Amino acid sequence: MKREMFNMRPIAFIMFILMSAQAFAQEKGLDINVDIDKGDGGAFYTKPWVWVIGAAVFILLLVAILRGGKK
């Protein structure tokens, strides 16, 4: 029985060293900075002037359709 204990000590020591190394490897926190801003200001439909022009065209079409029936 004592002989088996002496055979297990090197294995236990190696496992202890590997587990300690793994614990130290996990201590450093990750500093990830993801910048997805392309600098183009976003999509075209997020700009206010697109909505103003779209509303103006819609109103003009609506007026043309409604007045077109009255000749």
| Count of individual beta strands | 0
Please give the alpha-carbon distance between the first and last residues.
112 Å
Low-pLDDT segments, ≥5 res: none
pLDDT average, as an integer?
A: 81
Largest sheet: none
The computed structural class is: mainly alpha
Strand content: under 5%
The string of secondary-structure elements, in order, is HH
Instruction: Estimate the global geometry from the Cα principal axes.
Output: rod-shaped
- Helix content class: 55-70%
Radius of gyration from the alpha-carbon trace, in angstroms: 36 Å
How many alpha or pi helices? Answer: 2
Describe the fold and architecture.
The protein has 71 residues and is an all-alpha fold. The chain has two helices and no strands. The mean pLDDT is 81.
Q: Which terms would index this structure?
A:
single chain; 0% strand; mainly alpha; 2 helices; 71 residues; rod-shaped; 63% helix
Nutshell version of this structure?
The chain has 71 residues and is mainly α. Helix content is 63%, strand content 0%.
Helix/strand layout:
Blueprint: H1 2-25, H2 48-68
